[in-house]
């Protein structure tokens, strides 16, 4: 199989004349035919690739190819003397046309470019040695379709570097094996045509799988790619370890000879495959194949381009021991406890897992911008993310980064500048304060960097000890609380939050009850009580939130996108609660975690794993690149 690309002639003189090679990045299709290096190669459908041979040893994935980045350089080489034709006084020269191609979905990466440049030098060295061997040695199992190289004027070979996604698609399409592999060899030689050009074919190498194997086997990435290139080249020259034990032994010996003769590190690919540790790793990967399908591995994002410019990610999550209070005929029934599991980036312990942290760092390092969209205030969000080194100049959040906080009540734009804020009506806060005292439900008012409450309560204490918010100050009355908050609102940018039970967010009212209690009692009551003064929303079935009228996390995200000049088609969003629904619907790809509400999952494009299963990391590795 060939790649439909246009290649300039790369001549390799076998008598000390200069050789030129092309390194290209361009988009092209796989094609069944290829002319000499001096001609463009026409593309064609896969159906015409009848009789082509494909070889692979291990595992992994496939795609399309790239834009031109041609590097041409000279190289002096000597080669064995070819047989003379009658009447010729000069030795025949054989041209080697070698193309090193980089699949277009591989990002522009200095390491990949360096490897391509090294292959430009290494491939003809391996070809020369292999050609010498097949001419001067006798083999019992090698296909001898390629015999006397003296009958050809030139030899063509291309080497394509790609990622797992590309090679998996190729492996599925041509070998009906739906998994990635390390190397594929695609022969183009048709002996019956008697062409003056020996079209060896193509060697396709997954640089992503090569990187994992290099780590497993204790050598560098270029060492592993050389091993894969030699393996693929020998397949194209008629060796095939798959047909018999003798053939396997013969090809293994040839691999070892070429690598050793050229001074390259590492065992041959066949020998490496028998390594006990490698076999164990392969078995583990294959056994989890259905689970890992379409999901990239940690550390592999450097082999992919981002599909989006931004990821908007919800944050809040905890296990909340909630005291449920029911009002029945002016008396309260208490001491009913439930546990609520919430969250997206934070797990049920209100922590960011190391897996999520590494995924966010890796995505950010590859140019994907992460924006936090949360019910928390910015200082609290920064405090939590500092624990996993995600805050600050090189993190995903700081006082100088954009973000959506307090369910969209406070939005920061470029350089962390405040671009929107909305305060809750003080009358709503006042009514909630009286309700809190009457029913002995704890209330907390957030006023910028202060927390205010009306009486001591263990759940109020956990706000500080567990969720890293400021320690609550007890106000002597509802009016003192509202006045303190109102002054703060005018001087700074404050608002207020009512916590009925306990909550982790600010500047809003939140009630906790059973899902049935909220649906039948609290939601109808407060929807009527607030009317045009506030909005009632739910993040989870057990929680009712009251926020300033006309605001939501989704509206905050939309406002920020307009400020940044970014289209909704350029973002991916991850969330779990009903308050994330607008954001998920707005995004090009909305991911709801499996622990989320049914309503949220209903509007999402895909449903990911839960927050306790590193759902954010899973979504990034599966969908963002």
From TrEMBL:
Coiled-coil segments: none
The keyword Zinc belongs to this UniProt entry's keyword annotation: yes
MF-aspect GO terms: endonuclease activity; metal ion binding; metalloendopeptidase activity
Any Gene Ontology biological process: rRNA processing
Record keywords: Endonuclease, Hydrolase, Metal-binding, Nuclease, Zinc
Cofactor(s) needed for function: Zn(2+)
SUPFAM superfamilies, alphabetized: HAD-like, Metalloproteases ('zincins'), catalytic domain
HAMAP family noted in UniProt: Endoribonucl_YbeY
Family stated for the protein in its record: Belongs to the endoribonuclease YbeY family.
Official protein name in the record: Haloacid dehalogenase-like hydrolase family protein
Gene source species: Gossypium laxum
């Amino acid at each position: 199989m060939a790649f439909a690309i246009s290649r300039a002639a790369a001549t390799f003189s076998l008598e000390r004349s200069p050789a030129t090679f092309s390194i290209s990045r361009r988009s092209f299709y796989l094609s069944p035919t290829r002319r000499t290096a001096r001609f463009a190669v026409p593309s064609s459908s896969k159906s015409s690739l009848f009789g082509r041979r494909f070889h692979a040893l291990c595992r992994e994935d496939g795609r399309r190819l790239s834009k031109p980045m041609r590097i041409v350089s000279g190289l002096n080489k000597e080669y064995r003397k070819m047989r003379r034709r009658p009447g010729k006084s000069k030795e025949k020269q054989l041209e080697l046309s070698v193309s090193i191609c980089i699949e277009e979905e591989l990002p522009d990466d200095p390491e990949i470019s360096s490897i391509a440049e090294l292959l430009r030098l290494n491939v003809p060295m391996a070809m020369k040695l292999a050609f010498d061997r097949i001419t001067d040695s006798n083999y019992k199992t090698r296909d001898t379709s390629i015999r006397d190289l003296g009958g050809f004027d030139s030899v063509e070979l291309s080497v394509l570097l790609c990622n797992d996604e590309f090679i998996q698609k190729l492996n599925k399409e041509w070998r009906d094996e739906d998994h990635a592999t390390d190397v594929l060899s695609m022969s183009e030689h048709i002996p019956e045509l008697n062409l003056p050009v020996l079209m060896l074919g193509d060697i396709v190498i997954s640089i992503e799988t090569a990187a994992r194997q290099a780590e497993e086997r204790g050598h560098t990435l270029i060492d592993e790619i050389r091993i894969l290139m030699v393996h693929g080249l020998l397949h194209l020259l008629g060796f095939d370890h798959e047909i018999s034990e003798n053939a396997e032994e013969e090809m293994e010996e040839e691999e070892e000879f070429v690598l050793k003769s050229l001074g390259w590190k590492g065992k041959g690919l066949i020998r490496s495959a028998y390594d006990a540790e490698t076999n164990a790793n392969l078995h583990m990967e294959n056994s989890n194949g259905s689970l890992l399908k379409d999901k990239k591995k940690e550390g592999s994002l450097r082999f992919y381009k981002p599909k989006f410019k931004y990821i908007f990610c919800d944050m809040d999550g905890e296990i909340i021991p909630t005291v449920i209070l029911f009002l029945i005929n002016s008396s309260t029934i208490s001491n009913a406890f439930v546990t609520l599991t919430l969250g997206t980036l934070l797990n049920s312990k209100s922590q960011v897992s190391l897996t999520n942290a590494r995924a966010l760092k890796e995505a950010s390092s590859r140019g994907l911008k992460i924006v936090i969209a949360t019910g928390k205030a910015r200082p609290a969000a920064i405090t939590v993310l500092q624990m996993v080194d995600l805050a600050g100049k090189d993190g995903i959040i700081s006082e100088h980064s954009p973000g959506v906080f307090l369910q969209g009540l406070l939005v920061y734009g470029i350089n962390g500048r405040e671009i929107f804020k909305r305060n809750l009506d003080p009358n709503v806060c006042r009514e909630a304060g009286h309700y809190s005292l009457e029913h002995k439900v704890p209330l907390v008012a957030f006023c910028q960097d202060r927390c205010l409450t009306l009486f001591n309560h263990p759940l109020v204490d956990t706000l500080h000890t567990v969720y890293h918010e400021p320690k609550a100050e007890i106000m002597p009355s509802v009016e003192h609380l509202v006045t303190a908050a109102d002054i703060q609102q005018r001087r700074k940018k404050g608002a207020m939050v009512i916590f009925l039970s306990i909550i982790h967010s600010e500047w809003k009212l939140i009630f906790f009850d059973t899902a049935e209690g909220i649906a039948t009692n609290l939601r109808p009551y407060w929807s009527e009580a607030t009317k045009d003064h506030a909005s009632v929303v739910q993040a989870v079935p057990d929680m009712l939130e009251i926020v300033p009228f006309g605001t939501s996390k989704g509206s905050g995200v939309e406002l920020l996108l307009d400020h940044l000049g970014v289209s909704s088609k350029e973002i991916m969003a991850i969330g779990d609660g009903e308050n994330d629904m607008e954001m998920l619907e707005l995004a090009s790809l909305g991911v709801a975690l499996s622990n989320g509400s049914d309503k949220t999952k209903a509007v999402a494009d895909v449903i990911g794993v839960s927050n306790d299963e590193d759902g954010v990391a899973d979504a990034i590795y599966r969908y963002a690149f």
